[in-house]
Write a structure and sequence with these properties.
Length: about 250
């Protein structure tokens, strides 16, 4: 089952598997009967003790088969629970998961990933992820995708995506190619709020700088005013120190 397989598709897959198993069992039965007919018949003459031993061995073998069947069913149930748990962890993870082809087409994604792009998972399968990337950051994403399939190391990039309400969203993308180099796995974190906080912080810093500049201007003006006042006081003191100026004042 793929990560985006519908319940109806899963049911069809189960029915198909049951038909294939039934068909294989029937073919195996026919082969066994045909082989038995070709083998020469052997008459066994067993004592009562030997017959009891043989019957005991058959019963033990039957019990062993029943135990194996129970263990197989238990293992299958555990596997089914593990797959369900993994599917839930995949779908409800706090980050978006995507699997992309070399051409950038989406082949798998989780629920949060579909919410990030604003469309249902089935509508996104087969779509190119770059279609949702803004024009100004699309070259960044294309270069990122090229590096992912070229290099073996993890690559990072930051892109802008336009949401349904035309407000930009900022995504931090991490990607790495799988072993066959035909697909890559991407994780996406929505850092829009971080960008908002960063922008608000920059505005606050600019306002603080402006306020500091205004304070400095006022401080400079006050300094100039104090210098002028001191100069005027010096002139008054000079006039007061000479009698001629005092006579003129009288």
């Amino acid at each position: 089952m793929t990560f985006n397989e519908t319940p109806r598709g899963k049911q069809r897959g189960i029915l198909k598997m049951k038909k294939e198993n039934t068909s294989q069992a029937l073919i195996l039965r026919q082969k066994a009967e045909a082989r038995l007919k070709k083998q020469p018949s052997i008459n066994f003459s067993l004592s009562e003790t030997d017959a009891q031993k043989l019957n005991h061995e058959l019963e033990v073998h039957q019990n062993e088969l029943e135990i194996q069947i129970v263990e197989l069913r238990h293992a299958e149930a555990e596997r089914s629970r593990s797959c369900k748990l993994y599917q839930e962890l995949y779908d409800y993870a706090p980050i978006g998961y995507f699997t992309l082809s070399k051409e950038g087409e989406i082949s798998k994604l989780n629920l949060l990933g579909s919410k990030m792009l604003g469309k249902g998972p089935l509508k996104l399968i087969g779509s190119r992820f770059g279609f949702f990337v803004s024009d100004d950051t699309k070259p960044i994403f294309n270069l990122f995708l090229e590096k992912v399939f070229k290099n073996k190391a993890k690559e990072l990039c930051e892109v802008t995506v336009l949401s349904n309400n035309d407000l930009p969203k900022y995504f931090l993308i991490s990607g790495i190619a799988v072993e066959n180099r035909e697909e890559c796995l991407m994780t996406i974190a929505d850092i829009t709020e971080l960008h908002k906080t960063k922008a608000e912080l920059e505005i606050s810093n600019q306002e603080l700088i402006y306020q500091n500049e205004e304070k400095q201007k006022r401080a400079d003006e006050l300094t100039i005013a104090n210098v002028e006042l001191a100069y005027q006081n010096d002139e008054k003191q000079k006039r007061a120190d000479f009698p001629y100026f005092r006579t003129l004042v009288r």
